[in-house]
């Protein structure tokens, strides 16, 4: 008999309008068979939706068709066995369902003719042929789905939610939990994003020329945004959310696999892998945050470091070393190559930031540049560079700005000013672990001040 929970877990991979699908009409099957179908479906899900979306021009409809193919597989495979080419079987079944829908609706005749051609010419049962025809173009189709999910027409929040949902396979509940957002909010973003793409008639194709460059930047931005939210959570009780980082790296690997000649794709993946290599060392056993200076570098993941460095070699081979993500990856590599904090090549880091700020003249890059120059040339230089950006409106209430200032002042033994800066940073931080670290720095400065005022000193 069917394990309803097992079947439900499969169908939760796909949702209609952000809601879990009803499972009351699922076919009855045993646990092992359901698990086999789930495994195969997880492997085929993205390319199935990608291929369908390109033909029907509607992500929501592509999801429905994929769902129907899944239900059909649950009903058929346990009795007849798993077909030799399950991807082709699922695609053929979904296309049959599309033809049935369009025939009933008396519309989209052109699509009907294109999709029904293979079926009506007797090739419907030849799953190997279907699979081969899919593989001829599926790389472009999956890439087109990524580019579509990250279309600049959508807001950043919509792009992020849709990418995690369609490409990453996360449920709305998982996305909401990761970003500390209401599930209904995430569901609404996904629904609106699909509607915007459908109503605008966005084609499911990989753009070319200048449009491709612009869209690639959007894709990379979304993936890195997902990674950053996991690497340094903006709010909540956890400093790191590994699931988001792992998902972003998985998306990065998909993009590199589909666009191997894009240096910035390699640069982003390299950057994420190098940063992720420090996960185990970033948080102390008591849950407090550890800086680069205090981390146990023996805990850094050497495999991820090597993969990140290999990615930089690919960037160099593709002549993309001045790319935004490539430069950031090179910055991460400066730390990865240093066996001890004292071995860090801060002058190289400062030089890389000088190059990066020419490409990305943003206040946040300027802040990080100030830190690198402070480490290379002294905290006085850092304070001078901070003074140039302190009045920047976009940095008002930005905790890292005041944390950096506090660090420079602390190194100069200007403890009263440092304490004030750290206190302001803690007041602006919305992350519990980060806030605790900053308040610890406030306490350190206070202790130093009291010691300086003590008669015994």
UniProtKB/TrEMBL annotation:
SUPFAM superfamilies registered for this protein in UniProt: Sigma2 domain of RNA polymerase sigma factors (SSF88946), Sigma3 and sigma4 domains of RNA polymerase sigma factors (SSF88659)
Domain RNA polymerase sigma factor 70 region 4 type: 147-197
Organism of origin: Rhizobium rosettiformans
Molecular function per GO: DNA binding; sigma factor activity
GO biological process, one term: DNA-templated transcription initiation
Protein name: RNA polymerase sigma factor (Sigma-70 family)
Superkingdom of the source species: Bacteria
Annotated ranges, domain DUF6596: 215-313
Pfam families: DUF6596 (PF20239), Sigma70_r2 (PF04542), Sigma70_r4_2 (PF08281)
Residue stretches making up the RNA polymerase sigma-70 region domain: 47-106
């Amino acid at each position: 008999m069917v394990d309803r929970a097992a079947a439900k877990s499969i169908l939760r991979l796909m949702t209609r309008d952000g809601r879990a699908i009803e499972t009351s009409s699922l076919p009855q099957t045993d646990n092992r068979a359901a698990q086999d179908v789930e495994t195969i479906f997880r492997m085929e899900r993205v390319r199935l939706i990608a291929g369908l979306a390109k033909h029907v021009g509607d992500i929501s409809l592509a999801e429905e068709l994929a769902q129907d193919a899944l239900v059909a597989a649950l009903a058929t495979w346990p009795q007849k066995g798993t077909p030799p080419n399950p991807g082709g079987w699922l695609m053929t079944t979904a296309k049959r369902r599309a033809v049935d829908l369009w025939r009933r609706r008396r519309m989209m005749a052109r699509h009907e003719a294109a999709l029904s051609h293979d079926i009506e010419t007797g090739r419907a049962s030849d799953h190997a042929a279907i699979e081969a025809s899919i593989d001829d173009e599926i790389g472009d189709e999956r890439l087109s789905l990524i580019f579509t999910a990250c279309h600049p027409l959508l807001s950043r929040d919509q792009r992020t939610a849709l990418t995690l949902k369609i490409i990453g396979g996360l449920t709305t509940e998982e996305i909401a939990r990761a970003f500390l957002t209401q599930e209904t909010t995430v569901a609404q973003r996904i629904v609106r994003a699909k509607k915007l793409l459908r109503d605008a008639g966005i084609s499911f194709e990989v753009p070319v020329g200048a449009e491709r460059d612009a869209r690639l930047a959007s894709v990379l931005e979304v993936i890195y945004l997902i990674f950053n939210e996991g690497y340094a959570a903006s709010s909540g009780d956890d400093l790191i959310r590994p699931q988001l980082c792992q998902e972003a790296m998985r998306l990065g690997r998909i993009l590199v696999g589909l666009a191997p000649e894009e240096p910035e794709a390699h640069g982003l993946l390299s950057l994420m892998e190098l940063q992720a290599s420090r996960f185990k060392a970033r948080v102390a056993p008591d849950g407090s945050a550890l800086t680069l200076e205090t981390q146990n570098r023996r805990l850094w993941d050497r495999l991820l470091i090597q993969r990140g460095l290999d990615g930089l070699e690919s960037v160099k081979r593709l002549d993309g070393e001045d790319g935004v993500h490539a430069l950031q990856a090179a910055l991460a590599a400066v730390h990865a190559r240093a066996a001890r904090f004292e071995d860090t090549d801060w002058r190289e880091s400062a030089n890389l930031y000088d190059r990066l700020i020419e490409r990305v003249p943003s206040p946040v890059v300027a802040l990080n540049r100030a830190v690198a120059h402070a480490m290379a040339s002294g905290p006085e230089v850092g304070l001078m560079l901070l003074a140039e950006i302190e009045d920047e409106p976009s940095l008002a209430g930005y905790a890292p700005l005041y944390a950096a200032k506090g660090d420079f002042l602390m190194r100069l033994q200007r403890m009263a000013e440092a304490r004030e800066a750290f206190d302001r940073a803690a007041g602006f931080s919305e992350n519990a672990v980060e806030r605790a670290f900053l308040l610890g720095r406030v306490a350190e400065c206070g202790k130093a001040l009291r010691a300086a005022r003590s008669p015994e000193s």
